[in-house]
Design a protein that fits this description.
Length: 184
């Protein structure tokens, strides 16, 4: 998300006659909008399943993140921070926790990723997030406190079934180029 303003500015400069309508939402909501042909394209996160490799922009994995000085003695349920359902991060975390036999509770809920990061940095809770979303002051605690492994994921470029306009195709190509440059 940090690179989004520069990407949008570059596109607007290259295509000044194109009206750009941007929707920021949850990955699950964006997938539904693309499937309903309400969006030309979307960047979404999906679990890495090996399908549609051409659509993959970047690979990542989910990790358990906590404050750098996080301590948990195990006497109380492990406090977690999640967005309300439906949310991919929540779904990944809860799915992994359900089979782990770990005593846990949702201690903090926020629809905003910044809210969840604030809870983690304030040492109120642990959360599941993509490894690239760690901020200064956060550490990965995979395998600690009985936390189960989390799955690999990937950012994908989704296109509406009806096909894209020339402007959407150009924006999709720009997204691919930015992604390739970031990976290099």
């Amino acid at each position: 998300m940090a690179r989004l303003p520069a990407l949008l500015a570059q596109f607007a400069h290259l295509f000044p006659a194109v009206r750009l309508d941007v929707t920021v939402g949850t990955y699950l909501d964006l997938q539904k909008l693309v499937a309903a042909d309400a969006l030309d394209l979307a960047v979404v996160m999906a679990l890495a399943d090996g399908q549609d490799e051409a659509a993959v922009l970047r690979r990542t994995r989910f990790v358990w993140a906590a404050a750098q000085d996080f301590r948990h003695d195990g006497a109380l349920p492990l406090p977690l921070a999640f967005s309300p359902a439906p949310c991919m991060h929540r779904q990944v975390g809860v799915d992994a926790l359900e089979g782990a036999g770990l005593d846990w509770r949702v201690a903090f809920t926020s629809p905003s990723q910044q809210g969840l990061r604030a809870a983690v940095l304030a040492d109120l809770a642990v959360t599941a997030l993509p490894q690239g979303d760690l901020e200064s002051g956060m550490v990965v605690i995979d395998g600690q406190h009985g936390l189960p492994a989390l799955p690999a994921a990937q950012f994908q470029l989704l296109w509406r079934a009806a096909g894209g306009t020339a402007a959407a195709e150009a924006f999709g190509q720009l997204l691919r180029e930015w992604s390739a440059a970031a990976a290099a």
